[in-house]
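Give me the fold.
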Amino acid sequence: MSRWALVAGQPSGALGALVSVHERLGDALLIVLAAGVVLGALAVRNGSLLPTVRSYLWLAFAAVVLQGVGGISLLIAGQRPAEGLHLMYGPLTLVTLPLTLLFSRGTAPRREAWTLVAGFVVALLLAFRAVSTG
């Protein structure tokens, strides 16, 4: 059953497919962000991984943007999430990753790695809440 609360039941056709893609991408995003936590933790021990973690963060950000585009498309189509808080967690997840890079700039490599880990953890928790309130 869809996580989206619908007035007229489950959507069908293209709208139903978009709801399904949005839900599946949300689940995949949790895996992507969890992998970022692991990759960042590896960079704490091996500073040479920092460029990889930074690049991965931008890829994760692109996935969040794609998820947001799907969510906005659903809103425009008249679909609403089961809980209104869902509409807060998505944008918060979106801004977390770029802010993480901003806060980590110019710091020592080990500190930068810890900051990236923290950013991925915060984004993961926010994404988990978004998925659970969807």
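The beta strands are 4-5, 80-81.
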